[in-house]
Amino acid sequence: MDPRRLFGNRGEAMAAEYLKRQGYKILERQFRTRFGEIDLVALSSGEIVFVEVKTRKSSAHGFPEEVVTETKLHKLEIAAEHFLKKHALEGRPYRFDVVAIVGEGGECQVEHLVGV
């Protein structure tokens, strides 16, 4: 597997563990549609949370959350609509979050941006 994909998968696993410790229930990982992928789908206080995870080894070239553009958010919205329809969850409250991780191994900083 591509080393970048492995690094991203580790970041997604870290984000999932972080969210679980915050009381979120992980519903699905790497939900794929033809419009793109949703890294994590979670449930928090009755609200469905679509989570984009961005991981960087350092912030030398910017913070991970800075690459979540309007275009990316639009693709996430379309993919989220597919998830809701597939699971017959239309009409349920939902939001989009970003979990930004900087670092490697045990020296990571996690920032959770709610409702981007």
Characteristics of this structure?
5 strands, globular, five-stranded mixed β-sheet, 116 residues, alpha+beta, 36% strand, Trna Endonuclease, Chain: A, domain 1
CATH architecture: 3-Layer(aba) Sandwich
Class by SSE composition: alpha+beta
Q: Do you know the CATH topology? A: Trna Endonuclease, Chain: A, domain 1
Described by strand count, sense and barrel closure, the largest sheet is: 5 strands, mixed
Going across the biggest sheet, name each strand in turn: 1-2-3-4-5
- Fraction of helical residues: 25-40%
What is the total domain count?
1
Spatial gap, N to C terminus: 31 Å
| Count of individual helical segments | 2
What general form does the structure show? Answer: globular
pLDDT below 50 for ≥5 consecutive residues: which ranges?
Answer: none
Summarize, please.
The chain is an alpha+beta fold and 116 residues long. It has one domain (3-113): Trna Endonuclease, Chain: A, domain 1, CATH 3.40.1350.
Write structural notes for this entry.
The chain is α+β, with helices and mostly antiparallel strands. The protein has one domain (3-113): Trna Endonuclease, Chain: A, domain 1 (3-Layer(aba) Sandwich), CATH 3.40.1350.10. The chain has two helices and five strands. A five-stranded mixed beta sheet has the order 1-2-3-4-5, with helices on both faces. It is globular. The relative contact order is 0.19. The model has no long low-confidence stretch (mean pLDDT 86).
What is the secondary structure topology, with strand pairs?
Blueprint: H1 3-21, E1 25-33, E2 36-44, E3 47-56, H2 70-86, E4 94-102, E5 109-113
Parallel strand pairs: 3-4
Antiparallel strand pairs: 1-2, 2-3, 4-5
